[in-house]
Design brief:
Layout (H helix, E strand, L loop, with lengths): L12 H60 L1
Length: 73
């Protein structure tokens, strides 16, 4: 069931330029939005992971020092 004539696609330079001319603005805007969104997501994720990792390391260090202190007496 066809709704209309098939769109003919050719790989010549004029067709590629015409297609790119019609999509460059949405492509640029979408790329910028995705770049900003994913960079913010990555920054927040790494920042939270770093805070969690440092807190966990600090708690382990406090526990280890506490055990050493009690074992030395």
């Amino acid at each position: 069931m066809e709704s209309g004539p098939a769109h003919q696609w050719s790989w010549d330079l004029a067709t590629m330029q015409a297609e790119f001319a019609s999509i460059w603005w949405p492509l640029l805007l979408g790329s910028l939005v995705c770049g900003i969104a994913f960079s913010l997501l990555g920054y927040v994720t790494i920042s939270r992971f770093w805070i969690w990792h440092v807190g966990r390391s600090w708690r382990k260090r406090v526990q280890l020092r506490s055990k050493r202190k009690h074992n030395s007496h």
